[in-house]
Amino acid sequence: MAKILYVAIGNEILMGKTVNTNESFIGEHLVAAGIPLDLTITVKDDVAMIANTLNHYWEQYDVIIMSGGLGPTHDDVTKHAMCAFFGKKLIFHNDIWEKIQKMYANKSFDLPEIAKTQAEVPQDFTPLNNTIGTAPGLYFYKNSKHFFAVPGVPSEMRFIFEDSILPLLLENYHPQPLFQRTIRTIGIPESILSTSTQQIKETQKTKIAFLPKPGMVDIRVYGTSEDEVSKIVKLFVQHIPQQSIYGFDNDTIEGIFHKKMMASGKTLSAAESCTGGLIQSLITDNAGSSEYFKGGVVSYSNEAKMEILGVRKATLSRYGAVSRETVKEMVLGAKELIGTDYAIAVSGIAGPDGGTNEKPVGLVYIGTWGKTGLVITKNNFSGTRIEVKNKTALYALRQLEVEI
């Protein structure tokens, strides 16, 4: 099995200004190919530090994949660091320069002189085709070791990885397939989930990972034995309350909701307060949602609740906007106003202010009208304002989804 290291280059990544999606892409695709990554690190744009990193890891790994720093500006120093470590000099390639000129031919601005540096390749390195951008990928082979450098721009990196790097690795190494399944849960904390399934153990060929995120937990089971992975997944399913499992693998709550609504032949409306339209946005993110989603209301103020949805002033005065009674009238109001079979309504306190002892921040009422009629739940969500809104939207879709 090949030992593979991924090195990301970039001050912006270290500063938290840029999210390194390249790492997840490379990791996911190498796992799927059966030659997973062993280590990933991030290094700043510094010739000495990049060269020292190569010096430290070169003998330890069979493959090193490096991304970032191949552009034409002063802070793009990766090629210089590669030359310093491998003892090479930069060679100008006329064919790469001609390709760059052709790419700029149809643009509305002149080709800057600095772009010529994109056609410089370290001596004895093989340029890798990049049809999306101007900087080619770079490949070097020595003493049974493979080194790749690719641009940090995600679209360019992905093209070069799939077009050149992955095929080359598959030619040189015998992949060991890694099987994985993900159980996706909602409404049950990680600690409780882990405690209630503690009798389920890893084996020599499998691993188990609990992956929490706001309001939900994924359980990932992976290993080299497909049969053992399947057996462990079945054990988890037997020990987790069925209402807490909303899907598997790449399933999403909004995706499952969409499929069930499309198959139902029913129509849907929504009335939102604290989520400000987020539920409707999640619904309409799915192509074809116009088949069932007829419209909705963002009734953020009490006036809007009364004037548009018909919520009674007496209800708001006695129980408040965040109450079971108000949400009931919002659900029924949306359903009647828009004329739909099903409806969703939410009202809550997203924070960070506005809470009281009786109605704390995070208190949200979710009302749905589905195949069995009206369902209203009281929820106490934790987290930031954005997290409370996101949880409310997803829990609302899940609440109605089981009623479709």
Based on helices, strands and strand pairing, what is the structural class?
alpha/beta
Strand content: 15-25%
Residue windows where pLDDT falls under 50 for at least 5 positions: none
Outline the biggest β-sheet.
Answer: 6 strands, mixed
Please give a structural write-up:
The chain has 404 residues and is α/β, with parallel strands linked by helices. The chain has three domains: 4-172, 3-Layer(aba) Sandwich (Molybdenum Cofactor Biosythetic Enzyme, Chain A), CATH 3.40.980.10; 179-248, Alpha-Beta Plaits, CATH 3.30.70.2860; 253-401, Maf protein (Alpha-Beta Complex). It is built from 14 helices and 17 strands. The protein has a six-stranded mixed β-sheet with strand order 2-1-3-8-7-6, with helices on both faces. Strands 14-13-15-16-17 form a five-stranded mixed β-sheet, sandwiched between helices. Strands 10-11-9-12 form a four-stranded antiparallel β-sheet, with helices on one face. Helix 10 links the parallel strand 13 and strand 14. It is elongated, with a radius of gyration of 27 Å. The two termini are 48 Å apart.
